[in-house]
Amino acid sequence: MSKHVLIVASVLSLIACQACRRDDSLIKAGDEIVSKVENFRKDRGRLPSSLSEIGIEEKEEGQIHYEKKSETRYLLWFGKELGESVVYDSDKKKWE
């Protein structure tokens, strides 16, 4: 292999590792939000209308987004790459 191919392969590997770390970090932060949402539900008998109700400032450019889908179901999500998202569905209780 040429030196240039090795450099390109190394850079691509580094980018892939950074993306995996970012996803893991956002899932961890999302799990903390899930915990806060579930505690809110337990304490008040309903889901929060927005993240601000659980003390999280919402920004349009924020990394993790919340949507109340019904009285019992909500979604959290963050963008992974163009056109793809990682989503937590409260009905399934897992990230996909």
The gist of it:
The protein is 44% helix and 21% strand. The chain is α+β, with helices and mostly antiparallel strands. The mean pLDDT is 84.
Question: How would you portray this structure in words?
Answer:
By secondary structure, the chain is of the alpha+beta class. The protein is built from one helix and four strands, in the order αββββ. A four-stranded antiparallel beta sheet has the order 1-2-3-4, covered by helices on one side. It is elongated and about 65 Å long. It starts with a helix and ends with a strand.
Q: Secondary-structure blueprint of this entry?
A:
Blueprint: H1 3-44, E1 65-68, E2 74-81, E3 84-89, E4 94-95
Q: Count every helix, treating DSSP H or I runs of 4 or more residues as helices.
A: 1
Number of strands: 4
Strand order of the largest sheet: 1-2-3-4
Q: Rg to the nearest angstrom?
A: 17 Å
Q: N- to C-terminal separation?
A: 37 Å
Strand content: 15-25%
SSE order, one letter for each helix or strand: HEEEE
- What share of the residues lie within helices? 40-55%
Unreliable stretches: none
Overall geometry? elongated
Compute the average pLDDT.
84
Largest sheet: 4 strands, antiparallel
Please identify the structural class as seen in this structure.
alpha+beta
